[in-house]
């Protein structure tokens, strides 16, 4: 029964629908152009570009029906990245994600992703708490999945270092190192200045507070404040469950021991990579979705 459930999860169940914004070439001409420039195997019909709310970027491949219809590549770029980083840094980030695909890090043929995704897919459609199939699969696979997740974290860290080096061949080691430092430091500031205070406000709120993207816009100069950047980041305690290696290790792999200054942060990448309408509308859209969700949560808690 477990084998049949996994087969269904891998081959036949529909993909889970994403909640991100799908950006076409009219909406994000700059992003599509950078992706096409850096990806030697670019085929527009087999690619989807998403914009979500995370300060992150990712790339994935979907092989439906055992790969009979080829691979579909999806790249997701977070709106906060586009707002806070400049075009140089975003280009390096995209080069890193393209490197993952080129090195086959996104393929289940070279790592454990397909098997784990199939199991998660089964649990998504067959809740272990409410269905017999899901309950049996969880019993049989629990210990195995724990071991696989440990191996997957180790492999993912190796893949990150390899993707950094591959991307550096495209954009240069200096540009890749600069982008890594900016993502690390600005991500920390984003958490400290925006998300941590916002979480506290939500917990005690009687109505939805000011939404995140409005706050990012108001404090973007503080988030980007110049000055030495790597000292605190290199000394931060690393999350042992992270699928990414520490910043210091990533810089050392690129033959950098420290970067005290990333130089001037140029104009926001969002102005060059998205259409003017999309740049404004996406932040408003995400803020409105966030406000509705929080207001519903606050209302229930009254």
List keywords for this structure.
302 residues; alpha+beta; four-stranded mixed β-sheet; 12 helices; 4 strands; 8% strand; globular
Number of continuous helical runs = 12
H/E element order: HEHEEEHHHHHHHHHH
Strand content: 5-15%
CA(first)-CA(last) distance: 45 Å
Please characterize this protein's 3D structure.
The protein is an alpha+beta fold and 302 residues long. The chain is built from twelve helices and four strands. Strands 1-2-4-3 form a four-stranded mixed beta sheet. Helix 1 crosses helix 5, helix 4 packs across helix 6 and helix 5 crosses helix 6. The longest helix is centred in the middle third of the chain and has 40 residues. The chain is globular and about 55 Å long. The N and C termini lie far apart (45 Å).
How are the SSEs ordered, and which strands pair?
Elements: H1 2-11, E1 21-22, H2 29-38, E2 47-52, E3 57-63, E4 71-78, H3 79-84, H4 87-102, H5 113-125, H6 132-171, H7 173-203, H8 212-223, H9 230-235, H10 247-253, H11 269-273, H12 276-301
Parallel strand pairs: 2-4
Antiparallel strand pairs: 1-2, 3-4
Helix pairs in contact: 1-5, 4-6, 4-7, 5-6, 6-7, 7-8
